[in-house]
Amino acid sequence: MTADEFEKEALSLRPALTAMAARWLGGTDCAEDLVQDAMLKLWAMCAELRSPMAPLARVLVHNLCIDYLRRHHYTLSIDTTDVPDLSNASADIERIERMMAIVGTLPPAQQIILRLRHIDGMSMADIARLTGGTEAAVRKALSRARMAVKEQYLHNM
Question: RNA polymerase sigma factor 70 region 4 type domain: which residues (predicted)?
């Protein structure tokens, strides 16, 4: 790709790439910087590039956004003045007890997978390793368990 071809294509791609990065990052300042970095990397590869370079540019901006988000861990402070309203706590406890009773009626394998995923917060890979199955089998069993719980919960309302 020649320098003129690169410049022409880069100018046409820049607004779309900036919008994409802004959606990922929630603002245009960092998005502009990331798109500029992507264009610089593409310029370094200009001799090897072929038209159209839009797919490569989108992947590059996508990856740069992910890298940026990983490097800049954002934390939110918890305001102690926002104490939850506990006036409806008995109704919440009843719903939780009802849900746990429904979970107790599931087959043992589905119970285990559902509890490991939603109560213990384990990943699919960890559950598969623990149960000796594949991730696909764990996802399928979890889906079936969720459907059974939903069906029983809605049926017994």
Answer: 97-148
Domains of the chain: 3-71 (1.10.1740), 96-155 (1.10.10.10)
- pLDDT for residue 147: 92
The percent of residues above 90 in pLDDT, for the chain, comes to 10
> Taking the complete model, does pTM exceed 0.85, yes or no?
no
CA atoms within 13 A on the CB side of 127: 24
Name the helix (H) or strand (E) containing 131.
helix 124-131
DSSP 8-state class, residue 81: T
Do 145 and 113 meet the contact criterion of CB atoms below 8 Å apart?
yes
Minimal CA–CA distance to 35: which of 61, 68, 67, 5?
Answer: 61
Cα separation of 58 and 14, whole Å? 10
For 69-114, write each residue's pLDDT tens digit: 888 766 655 555 555 566 667 777 888 888 888 888 999 888 889 8
Count of other CB atoms within 10 angstroms of residue 154:
8
